[in-house]
Amino acid sequence: MEYAAPATLDNALALAHETDGQVRFLAGGTDVLVQLRSGLFEPDLVIDIKQIPGMLDVTRSPEGAWTIGAAVPGRILGTIEGLRDDWPGIVEAMELIGSTQIQSRASLVGNLCNASPAADGIPAMVAAGATVSIAGVDGLRTAEVADILMAPGQTNLKKGEIVTSIDLPARVAGSADAYLRFIPRTEMDIAVAGCAVNLTVKDSQVCTARVSLGAVAPTVLLVPDAATAICGTCLDETALNDLAAACRAACRPIDDKRGTVAFRTDIAGVLARRAAILAYRRAQERESA
Amino acid sequence: MIHVKMKVNGDPTEFLCDPRETMLDALRDRLNLTGAKEGCGTGDCGACSILLDGNVVCSCLVLAAEGQDREIETVEGMAAGEDLHPLQRKFLEHAALQCGVCTPGILVAAKALLERVPDPTESEIRYWLAGNLCRCTGYDKIVHAVADAAIEMRST
User: Fold this and answer.
1) Which site from A165, A202, B14, B127 is most exposed, i.e. has the minimal number of CB atoms within 10 Å?
2) Are residues B69 and B96 in the same domain?
3) Inter-chain contact A100–B112, Cβ cutoff 8 Å?
4) Which of B43, B77, B111 is at the close of a domain?
């Protein structure tokens, strides 16, 4: 295995392109190093992306869109002025991942590229309608987060492509998101189920919504039926029940030591209700603000 | 082999390492700093905690080569000669250790907490140290030692 820490994106892309064998990109390393050490793969080249300009930056455009560099560690997100105001669900999802030590290193893009079905960051990004900027030797492209997820641990990124950032759209008034997960303890565990809700309210009515579920299918899911269930409502009891039912209907979970199919399916509905209520309350605060 | 130059506990340091080598292995086997321990090797137990540019990380999940131009702090850098760091003294006073394998990592992590939050609540201490596992003490003495060290450090 070779290690390289190129100083430019072009150098990184060229190195990845020229290497015949397996290439792995290294941001915080909290998944890559574990996999490397377990012998899960033996890359020919590890490319550390942290020296590349922009990878550790968080920027907000004049219009209010956010760009979060691929190697920005979780601990940074909550310290960025205005990010939690715009995207509380994204920040709380990232902050749920791992310990203080992991937060010093782990990034949202890394969470996405690791493509765990139970990733906490991914449902929040999917609900947010986040896109990723992807660089390759043929140029730059963008993709919706949900569209690059293929299977547990698999994305459809092509060999040598680097996700350079997560991009979040500008907020309109009365919008907010929330992410909740269930774990059997209070810290340091992997989601049994997770749900992110991102919505916009006007005059107490939900106008737009996106609902995403984690740990209940081979990939994180976007659940359009769940969004339909609450759009046009004031999130009354009927709407919440419809939301929970739509989420449960979308679940295709596995049985494992963390939870049974029945439990995961049930809890997905409970989490969806609670996340929707939380996002709705936050959105109302932001409508009046 | 990769040539790495970095600062360890304030001292400029150089070493050669294999590209696959972790920072934990480089610290222990090349620099003879055996304070950081390998527990799980997967970032769960925190026994290998060090500070990387002031942030607490698991050194088992850092490549040694990533250390280039960075500043590392380990438990060996906490005492000033014979004078123990207040956290180290309070751990002794409170008997906040038994086998001692987790202690260097917890001391380093707690130091990082008190540099950011001089007056942490018990909950803040427990959440901050959630990534440092101790199989002996049951944590209470550790939490009390950190809180007591914080009181002393605020008064000086």
Assistant:
1) B14
2) no
3) yes
4) B77
